[in-house]
């Protein structure tokens, strides 16, 4: 199951999180945690993501929050 933030990455043409992480100047592990909802992103990273993915900061923020909610829902139900 892909999160909305992962979909934004794919739509921007980044098939691998590794390539996107390099362009974003963050670790691949951190980006994977953001995409899974296990971690959030700082404002500076959200801005870089919005620029790289060709969208708005508010869209990136909303997708990350939705991923976080889904992640915590999965953790509570397991």
Question: What would you say this structure looks like, in words?
Answer:
The chain has helices at residues 4-11, 17-24, 28-36, 43-53, 57-77. The chain is mostly helical.
Q: What is the tally of helical segments?
A: 5
State the secondary-structure class. mainly alpha
Q: Can you tell me the overall shape?
A: globular
Order of helices and strands: HHHHH
Integer average pLDDT: 95
Q: What is the rounded Rg?
A: 12 Å
User: Main beta sheet, described?
Assistant: none
Low-confidence stretches: none
Strand content of the residues, in percent? under 5%
Extended strand count: 0
Helix content: over 70%
Query: How far apart are the termini?
Result: 17 Å
């Amino acid at each position: 199951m892909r999160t909305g933030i992962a979909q934004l990455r794919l739509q921007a043409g980044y098939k691998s999180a590794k390539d996107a992480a390099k362009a974003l100047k963050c670790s691949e592990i951190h980006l994977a945690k953001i995409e899974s909802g296990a971690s959030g992103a700082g404002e500076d990273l959200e801005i870089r993501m919005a620029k790289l993915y060709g969208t708005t900061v508010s869209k990136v923020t909303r997708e990350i929050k939705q991923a976080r909610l889904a992640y915590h829902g999965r953790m509570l139900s397991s």
